[in-house]
Amino acid sequence: MTDNNKSLFSGNISDIMQSAYIDYSMSVIVSRALPDVRDGFKPVHRRVLYAMLREGLLHSRAYDKCAGVVGEVLKNYHPHGDSSVYDTLVRMAQPWVMRYPLVDGQGNFGSVDGDSAAAYRYTECRLTKIAEELLKDIDEDTVDFAPNYKESSTEPTVLPSSLPSLLMNGSSGIAVGMATNIPPHNLGELIDAVTLLIDEPNCTIEQIMEILPGPDFPTGGTIAGRSGINSYMHTGRGIVRMRGTITTEELPNGKQQIIISEIPYNANRATLVTRIADLVKEKILDGVSDLRDESTETTRIVVELKLGEIERVTINKLFKLTALESSFGVILLALDKRRPRQMNIKEALECYVDHRREVILRRTQFRLRKAEDRAHILEGYKIAQDNLDDFVRIIRASANRIEAKSNLVAKYTLSDRQVNAILDLRLYQLTGMEREKIDAEYQELMTIISGLKEIIENEHILLSVIKDELSALRDVYADERKCTITEYEGDVRMEDLIPNDGCVVTITKSGFIKRTGVEEFRSQNRGGKGVIGSGQKEEDPVEILQTCNAHDTLMFFMKNGRVYVGKAYEIPEGSRIAKGRNIINLLEMQKSEKVAALIAIDSFESDQSLVLCTQKGVIKKTKINAYKNHRKGGIIGINVDEGDTVLKAIKTNPDDHILILTKNGKGLRFCCDQLRDQGRVTRGVRGIRLKPKDQVDSCLVVDDQKLLLIAGQNGLGIRTRFSAFLPNGGKLDSDSVEDATPRKRGGQGVTAMNTDRIIGALSVDPESEILMITSNGQAVRCPVNNVRETSRGSKGVKLVNLSGKDKLTAISEVIELDEGDELEEEGTESENLLENEPETDTGNLNTDHDTKTDSTE
Question: What would the 3-class secondary structure string for 488-521 be?
Fold first, then answer.
């Protein structure tokens, strides 16, 4: 390789492209597309405002050409196209876009009809008063500065932002693999919410919503329903339904006309009028006789109805068929410490409070340094005035300034700065009147210094400063809400917003829960090594694995017998490698409670029963509808004996057979009608008689049309017939299995599998797929037809390839949703997060262990 090519290197083009694209993605995410949660701005917005401040374009001064601002931004801060800078400036000046405009524009800055702004050589601008509040104190070391792109100057990495700009004006942006869409809010309500959070850091989101009920769009209108607001306030995502404001007027000729006075946020007024005209032309709005757009600076669209036409019918059609009812998909995503983070409303407000705390602290430290510096000089002045005659003598006797400085320092305890300040004094400043001024200024500085030190040393006083400043700004800038929030019939449900897809719910030993789509676990052959299925380490394995649909109701049975109820979609969604969220943040569990079993049901209005089984073999049957009056704080599901714990919960019908399996491999099959229906607050009866040191491991409903799959913690499993647990060992014909008499409840059972520890059992058919998770967090999804059928009592075949001390901990059947059951969703947005996750290699080890053992007792 020649010297001219020393910078060249060889590599795989796929690796180079992947690395380059990741770098590009992160650059877009951090430096262009997403706002900072602290000041609510993207870099281009921040640079425009800072450039206008440096140009002196304050609200109290004259306007200047936008071309000059664009040129200044391009010259010093933003090395991109001029259109992006000017579009940003224009947007910050449009009152139908910004709830609180930050730029005061003069000239043609576009319209709500979609008209574009005039070229920047024709328009003029300056900062608004509220924008100056966001830049206030920037020269007092309140924020960090970084070199600009050509390192000729510096620019702020964040603005001091004395107001919560992110939520005040909202933001939108599309990055690579993620997007943000934050609605604007009312400033007065925001400040009240911040004050509440400072006063009560442990306040709930419900308490915040009492003060901050939802968005406040600059175009007014109404928000129809609260479910979308409640969703994004709690999770950071939700769909807010917006409607325009409509009134009706009576005409002298007996006709009625519909007046549209406000339109939804981001709706184009001219496009709306065109759409209504098209519907009238197509005879869809057949009750309309005339349509006029009488809008000026305010909106007034007149829809005149035919005589005798019912206005409610036309209004409903307008909402349904035009942009008069629109949806705003909220994604509260912003950069927190330079990392994209989706957060709820409380977390966003907490980030702002933390930012203001740092700004006030740094500002106070800066002012303290200046005050102490000035006090230091005044102390020197006082020494000079106390020894004025001697100072004059020394100065007059000195040959020059350097000698005078040296002589003064030698005789008096003065610093270089004090001596220089004294030598710079004018003669009139040595008069008695000036001495009084110096004393007064010094005393005032001492008071200021004491107050500044109190702020720095006392967290309570520091937070009070934040509250006081926000309260003062509230008095100046807060206004009434423009947008009203209403309840309306047909309010959107969460089920309407969330697809009813199959998912996997996992709970780890230490109580971390998450919901993952089944599509993340690709199918493999049995014996495969699997992919990473959990973010947990070996010391925190998955203990409970349940597949269900997103709309299912989940019942969480605690080991002490209590039961909690929630929806599957309420569980935080995470990837295969995500750690999940602690379940105590999801359920209002009592202290020291731990989940023992998890079951999914479609509805409480069911004729089925729930059968609960404990580790010591106690079993109880209760109707599902007995649990319908559940509470957030949980209800009693079964009375558990001391030293015993709930193990399993299953759904049954009256004619079902139940199979109980123990840890040591015993199995007992008996009919469900041997159990009477009991109330919730009861103990139950004996299900199986256990030998010493044995305990129940699994309990399931028998389906003789399927096969039984049993898995051991050593990674081996068997697939056998349920009829093998009948008294005759399963030698009946298939037609007579249903007529066979099972064993009696309370017996010891027969050998089911020759293993030292059973971890789970499933009822499967040939088309079933199973999902297995190990203690190291590996997940294997494979079809059951890879596991050949064996007789009861064998050791089984390898289900998963375990390495080292890894163990199989959980097994569940994969539930897939039929195409006919999928919901059609309108206005939903999908977010594909950027992932660079290498998949673990899989194997196909088919080692069988079919050694037959004695299967009868």
Answer: CCCCCCHHHHCCCCEEEEEEECCCEEEEEEHHHC
How is residue 289 written in tokens? Answer: 């006789």
Dihedral over alpha carbons 814, 819, 824, 827 (to 10 degrees): 60
Residue 109: predicted pLDDT? 95
Return the CATH architecture of domain 500-819+843-849.
Answer: 6 Propeller (2.120)
Amino acid at 464: S
Query: Alpha helices of 387-512 — where are they, by DSSP H?
Result: 388-397, 401-411, 416-423, 432-457, 459-477, 494-497
Residue 795 structure tokens: 């050791």
Q: What's the rounded Cα separation, in Å, for the pair 538 and 509?
A: 10
3-class secondary structure, 180:
strand
Question: Using the 8-state DSSP alphabet, how is residue 117 labeled?
Answer: P
Domain boundaries 245-323, CATH class: alpha beta
Angstrom distance (rounded) from CA 251 to CA 259? 12
381, 421 in Cβ contact below 8 A?
Answer: yes
Nearest to 472 by CA among 240, 162, 44, 688: 162
∠ CA 728-731-734, nearest 5°, is 120
At the topology level, CATH places domain 355-477 in Topoisomerase; domain 3 (1.10.268)
**Three-state DSSP class for 777?**
coil
Please give the structure tokens belonging to residue 408: 């003064």
Set 24, 63, 77, 122: catalytic member: 122
Is 122 among the residues known to form the active site?
yes
Name which of 2, 6, 92, 96 is nearest 48 in CA terms.
Answer: 92
What is the Cα–Cα distance from 458 to 560, expressed in whole angstroms?
Answer: 46
Tokens of residue 684, six digits: 């139950």
666-671 β-sheet, strand order: 696-702, 657-662, 666-671, 750-751
Query: What is the structure's pLDDT at 836?
Result: 33
Close Cβ partners of 513 (under 8 Å, ≥ 6 residues apart): 505, 506, 507, 571, 572, 580, 581, 582, 583, 586
| Dihedral sign of CA atoms 90, 91, 93, 94 in order | positive
pLDDT at 833: 28
CA atoms within 13 A on the CB side of 843: 12
Asked if 550 and 569 touch (Cβ cutoff 8 Å), the reply is yes
Nearest by Cα to 163 from 329, 326, 22, 38: 38
* Contact by Cβ (8 Å): 327, 27: no
Spans of all domains in the chain = 245-323, 355-477, 500-819+843-849
Q: Is 419 helix (H, G, I), strand (E, B) or coil?
A: helix
| Strand boundaries in 118-178, DSSP class E | 124-127, 145-147, 154-156, 171-174
Amino acid at site 473: L
Instruction: Write the single-letter amino acid at 574.
Output: G
The two three-digit tokens of residue 680, written as one number? 């919730």
Smallest Cα–Cα separation from 125: which of 107, 100, 112, 98?
Answer: 107
Residue 749 to residue 831: CA distance in whole angstroms: 52
Alpha-carbon gap, residue 349 to 211, rounded angstroms: 13
DSSP secondary structure string, 764-821? E-TT-EEEEEETTSEEEEEEGGGS-B--TT--EEESS---TT--EEEEEEPP---GGG
Name the nearest CA neighbour of 92 among 68, 122, 69, 62: 69
Torsion of CA 30, 35, 36, 40, to 10 degrees: 170
Residue entry with tokens 């992006």: 84
Name beta bridge partners: 619.
Answer: 613, 685
Q: Which residues of the chain have pLDDT under 50?
A: 1-2, 489-492, 494, 497, 532, 731-739, 817-857
3-state secondary structure 264-296: CCCCCHHHHHHHHHHHHHCCCCCCEEEEEECCC
Rounded to the nearest 5°, which phi and psi values hold at 356? -65, -35
